[in-house]
Each structure stands twice: as structure tokens, then as C-alpha cells.
Design a protein that fits this description.
The chain is α+β, with helices and mostly antiparallel strands and 295 residues long. It has 10 helices and 15 strands. The chain has a 5-stranded mixed sheet. A 4-stranded antiparallel sheet has the order 12-11-10-15. Strands 2-5 form a two-stranded antiparallel ribbon. The longest helix is centred in the middle third of the chain and has 15 residues. The termini are close together. The N terminus is likely disordered.
Length: 295
């Protein structure tokens, strides 16, 4: 996420510059990072740079270390050109608050012109994984149009994924895995996990879907500009936009799954469609977009 770039990359630029590999060529936007993840790693962070723009992806490593210690494959979604990739690791509990150590850097030249933006895998959105593919196919088996498929995904996610209220209450949600595959397996998430899974299920069906990060708003923000709202203190929120029939459809599976009981501070399931395909003007009354995730 963009915020990570500014909050947790505490690595000297000289150390990175001295460890960049020779340029590697790829013709299919796919890059298997060579190298081994150090023992004890809890979070893996990959920073991808192209044409002055930077995106970052994080992965809860213990969920995947059983398959071996090799670094994962990444997809280069911004088309042909030169990419610089930096890899960092931490054994800290939080993916946000922990200090990261530099592991490796790669220079990759991609010649593939295929449009993969908002369709491909990222470390957090494993759209091509067999479990994600199977789940997406099953939950949309009777749907015919892309909008029907999107609604079926929304219905399944809101009915089956519980909000991780305990970790939200004690502010340790940033110590839990929130990638799509982990959420599909655990059936528990906070907003980013809901959005990652929703994106992965759409992408598994070939529907372009992005994760959006912003703020939930109310009357107190009436006199604030969007920029002021995004810069103000307070928690960020994540939701989705899916490209259906040439338009971006708003989807917030977190809010449509239920709410917190104010007395018991527990999650109450209350499935609805208030935030599925909500008209943009109406959606903007409660949601302010701060940025799109670029993976």
C-alpha cells in the first residue's frame, strides 16, 4: 500500500544501490524473484518502481513458508518497460509498525504489452490460485452477466466472511494476514482483507477490479475538502471498484457484511446490498477515495 512506502521503508538508499542485480528480461510480465527468504521472516515487502511511480505489496510469510523458502513470483502490471524491484523483510509483529531490512533488488525489463492492470495476481490478491479460481467459479455458477457475477461474489463474501472485531478492538489487525487466500481460508478479515478477497474473486473471472483506499465520512467532514479528509488523522478504509460493462461499480463488502455491536463490541452479521453498485454521487456521501492500489 502507498502508506507503507512512507512509513516503514527505513533502508539507506546507498545499501539498495549497491545490491541491484544485472537487468533481467521477461516477455510475459512474470518475474520469479531469485533468492531465499531468511528464517524467522514474518512479513515480506516488495516495492515496485516504474517511470517514477512506486507501489508496494506485503505478504504474511508464515502462511506460505511451508511451500519452501524461495521468494515468490510477481506480476509486472504496468506494461512494457524497465522495472526496479526492492525486497524487504521483517520479523516484527506488525506489517505497518515494524522496521524492515533490505534483502535484494532486481532490474527487470518487460517486453509484454498485454494489459494486466487490475487483472493479475499480486502478493495480496492471488487471483490465479486454484482455491480462488474454484471458489469464484462455484459462487457464480448460475450468473450469466458480469454484473450478476459481481453481485454473486458480493453476496458470498458478505455472507461468509466475518469482520475481525477482536483484532480491530485491540488494534492488532495489522499483525494478521489479510491477503485474499488467507481470508478465503480463515473466513475472517478487516476491511483490507475483504477488499483483497473481493478483488481476487473478480479477477479470477476476468473482471478488472481494484482495491481503493480512503476514508468513511459523516457530517463532521461536511466542510472539509477530499484532500483534507485524506490527510486528517483517523483510520483508512478499503473497498473495491469493478469494471463492469464499461463502468466502475462501487463495492464495499465490509459494510454490507454487518456492523459492530456498540455494547458488546462484537461483530453482528447483517448482510445487505446498500454498498453494491451504489450510484457514485450517493456513494460519495459516505466514502472518500484517497488512492487506488496499483497492483
Amino acid at each position: 500500500m502507498k502508506a507503507l512506502i512512507f512509513t516503514i521503508l527505513m533502508v539507506a538508499s546507498s545499501a539498495i544501490a549497491q545490491n541491484v542485480s544485472p537487468k533481467i528480461l521477461t516477455s510475459n510480465s512474470s518475474f520469479q524473484m531469485p533468492g531465499i527468504v531468511p528464517a524467522g521472516t514474518r512479513w515480506l515487502l516488495v516495492e515496485i518502481q516504474k517511470n517514477g511511480e512506486t507501489s508496494s505489496q506485503t505478504l504474511f510469510w508464515p502462511s506460505f513458508a511451508a511451500g519452501g523458502a524461495a521468494l515468490p513470483r510477481i506480476v509486472l502490471v504496468r506494461g512494457p518497460g524497465d522495472y526496479t524491484i526492492h525486497v524487504f523483510t521483517t520479523d516484527g509483529a506488525s506489517y505497518i509498525q515494524s522496521a524492515y531490512k533490505f534483502l535484494a533488488s532486481y532490474e527487470v525489463v518487460n517486453s509484454d504489452r498485454t494489459d494486466r492492470l487490475y487483472l493479475a495476481d499480486s502478493l495480496e490478491i492471488q487471483a490465479s490460485h486454484p482455491e480462488i479460481q474454484k471458489a469464484a467459479a462455484e459462487m457464480t455458477s448460475v450468473a450469466k452477466t458480469d454484473l450478476e457475477k459481481s453481485r454473486a461474489i458480493h453476496t458470498w463474501v458478505t455472507a461468509n466472511i466475518a469482520y475481525d472485531q477482536p483484532h480491530a478492538n485491540d488494534r492488532t489487525f495489522d499483525q494478521q494476514p489479510g491477503d485474499a487466500l488467507s481470508v478465503l481460508r480463515s473466513k475472517v478479515a478487516v476491511c483490507l482483507g475483504y477488499a483483497n478477497l473481493t478483488a481476487a474473486l473478480h479477477r479470477a473471472l476476468g473482471i478488472k477490479t481494484r482495491v481503493v483506499v480512503g476514508k468513511l465520512i459523516g457530517q463532521r467532514e461536511d466542510n472539509m475538502t477530499p484532500a483534507e479528509i485524506c490527510q486528517a488523522k483517523g483510520s483508512f478504509h478499503a473497498w473495491n471498484e469493478a469494471l463492469v460493462d464499461g463502468r466502475w461499480v462501487n463495492i464495499d463488502t465490509t459494510l454490507d457484511a454487518g456492523h459492530e455491536d456498540g455494547y458488546t463490541r462484537t461483530f453482528v452479521r447483517a448482510v445487505g446490498e446498500k454498498y453494491f453498485d451504489t450510484p457514485p454521487g450517493l456513494f460519495a456521501l459516505t466514502h472518500i477515495k484517497c488512492w487506488d492500489e496499483t497492483e
